[in-house]
């Protein structure tokens, strides 16, 4: 596999640094915040699509659901134009009927390449909530919540055509984002 400089990995490092800065003395916090700023600036120089949204890597202009996470974790503010452009582009290109897909594999319709990733649906709920779009966030949450199995457990993917769970079951990461979404959607966006 090619050695990619994944945009989402670089940005999530900036989020971690910003979080760490909130836990240390002020002098150390300033240097951590400055390093986070440099990472975001460097990443913007090589990982920003000409349309203004983040792309997977310098050599891969596609979108990826992972690009929605850094703003949710504090790398960038919700109002940053790159945050908003990425959310809009992702919603346009990688979602259908309030189901979300991680990235486009090829030119086939999304639902033919793989199942909808339920984790990504909850990330969309969180991203819409962060933007202050409460009703849209609730739509995302409820659509993906309804895709659980009879025991109330989530799998990794959901086949929207056959209305069946696919992939790993139960999927811990999906349950974690389900719980985070439920808790955050019960509050006002920050």
Outline the secondary-structure elements.
Layout lengths: L6 H15 L4 H22 L21 H4 L8 H13 L1 E2 L2 E2 L9 H4 L2 E2 H13 L3 H12 L11 E3 L4 E3 L5 H14 L5
Antiparallel strand pairs: 1-2, 3-4, 4-5
Helix pairs in contact: 1-2, 6-7, 6-8, 7-8
Key structural traits:
globular; mainly alpha; single chain; 190 residues; three-stranded antiparallel β-sheet; 2 domains; 8 helices
Class inferred from helices and paired strands: mainly alpha
Number of strands: 5
What is the mean predicted local confidence, pLDDT? 94
Strand line-up across the major sheet: 3-4-5
Tally the structural domains.
2
Sheet bearing the most strands, described?
Answer: 3 strands, antiparallel
Q: What's the N-to-C terminus distance?
A: 39 Å
State the helix count. 8
Rg computed from alpha carbons, rounded to a whole number of angstroms: 17 Å
Helicity, as a percent range: 40-55%
Q: In percent, how much strand structure appears in the residues? A: 5-15%
The succession of helices and strands, N to C, reads: HHHHEEHEHHEEH
Shape: globular
- Uncertain runs: none
Give a verbal description of the structure.
This protein has 190 residues and is mainly alpha-helical. It folds into 2 domains: 1-77; 94-190, no CATH class. It is 51% helix and 6% strand. It contains 8 helices and 5 strands; from the N terminus they run H-H-H-H-E-E-H-E-H-H-E-E-H. The strands form 2 sheets. A 3-stranded antiparallel sheet has the order 3-4-5. Strand 1 and strand 2 form a beta hairpin. The longest helix is centred in the N-terminal third of the chain and has 22 residues, at 26-47. It is globular.
């Amino acid at each position: 596999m090619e050695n990619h400089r994944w945009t989402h990995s670089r940005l999530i490092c900036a989020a971690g640094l910003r979080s760490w800065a909130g836990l240390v003395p002020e002098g150390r916090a300033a240097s951590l915040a400055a390093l986070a700023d440099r990472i975001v600036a460097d990443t913007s120089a090589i990982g920003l699509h000409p349309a203004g949204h983040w792309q997977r890597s310098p050599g891969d202009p596609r979108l990826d659901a992972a690009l929605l996470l850094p703003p949710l974790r504090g790398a960038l503010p919700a109002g940053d134009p790159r945050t908003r452009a990425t959310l809009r582009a992702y919603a346009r290109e990688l979602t259908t009927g309030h189901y979300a897909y991680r990235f486009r594999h090829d030119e086939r319709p999304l639902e033919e390449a793989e199942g909808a990733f339920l984790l990504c649906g909850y990330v969309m709920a969180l991203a819409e909530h962060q933007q202050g779009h409460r009703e849209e966030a609730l739509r995302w949450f409820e659509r993906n919540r309804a895709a659980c199995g009879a025991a109330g457990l989530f799998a990794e993917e959901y086949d929207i055509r056959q209305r069946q769970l696919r992939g790993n079951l139960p999927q811990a990461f999906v349950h974690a984002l389900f719980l985070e979404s439920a808790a955050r959607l019960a509050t006002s966006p920050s």
